[in-house]
Amino acid sequence: MLSCVLLSAALAQPSSSAPPGVTSAGNVTLAQASESAWQRAVQAREADGQILRAQAERLAASSLWAAPPALELSHRNDRWQTNQGRRESEVGLAWPLWLPGQRAARNAAVDAALDLGQAAVQAGRLHFAGLVREASWRMAAQTAEVGLADTQAKYLKGVADDVERRVKAGDLAHADALAAKAELLSATAAQSAARERLQALRSQWVVLTGLQAIPDATETLSASGPDLSSHPNVRLAELTVDRARKRLDVVNVSRREPPEVIFRLRQDTPGRAEVAQNSMGIGVSIPFGTDGRNQPLQATALSELDIAQTAVQRLRDRLTAEAVVARAAVLSAQEQLDAERTRAGLLRERASLIDRSFKAGETPLPELLRSLNAASQAEAALARQQTAAGLTRAQLQQTLGILP
């Protein structure tokens, strides 16, 4: 029969930071898993599309013309009126011109949009790093639970076999054999349920990352305070403000539609047998800018800027508060882990003493089973608290905006 000491040694996890059962899981790092999850995400395609749109807008803003040139064609004759052979044909080409300062403002807005797209990529990576961190620690906790269930079932199998031999020898009653078998069946059912939950988490992991290997979720905890200026989400919000401000500048310098320079070639034929006359002309089209056009555009741009400025301030306040709460959670989780480790050690020692007493025939089987159950629950609580402590550290890294 396995001893309770061996059981406890198998269940105990001496490290306070490594996720039980995961450190030897695979050959992939947390950073690689996070990047794999990001590349599979729809948000990655959206961020790439945003960058491509900004690059296309940059190409348009670098053009010599405010809009594509337009070709004008016209022809008139008197065929259906007097039919004297009069004809008039005209070809024109219109070039829209940049307003003063408009081109520079458009280029600045495009640069801001491109920076915003790149910041959106980093913010997206941070978001999926958080999902990967939580998923890896959930699997760490469930892997530990499976290990506990396996060891518990193995130990109770030894207890049941030993009790069966002692019942046959007449040292124990048949009721003790029934109790031992019942405990073994309960442990086997718990083992099966734990394995099923682990398999479900593994399936979710594959959907998230596309990987079979499980990384070591342990990270070195940052000792520095939160640097909000380098946080990807803050950077994204600040660039959103910058883009809104640049868009407002574009609206302010675009008080009217772009003027057009128009070159025309014209051919007139006064009548039959008369010589055609050619001429060339140049014209300018200057649209007026009215309040009906400008005020809605300016109001929209001002509203976008105000919303972006408010959002970045609220984000700073929220991240600062979350960092304080996350650091407190790390300290609290570590204190609970120390308490659970001490409690598990005490119950482990008690179960070991009762195990030796049972072997000597001095303690009844129910007492052994109760002590074993208490020790197992304490070891399970210790394993759960280890993963909870690791998760709080990962959540602090996430709050600080630190990528794996």
TrEMBL record:
<keyword id="KW-0732">Signal</keyword>
<dbReference type="GO" id="GO:0015562">
    <property type="term" value="F:efflux transmembrane transporter activity"/>
</dbReference>
<feature type="signal peptide">
    <location>
        <begin position="1"/>
        <end position="17"/>
    </location>
</feature>
<dbReference type="InterPro" id="IPR010131">
    <property type="entry name" value="MdtP/NodT-like"/>
</dbReference>
<protein>
    <recommendedName>
        <fullName>Transporter</fullName>
    </recommendedName>
</protein>
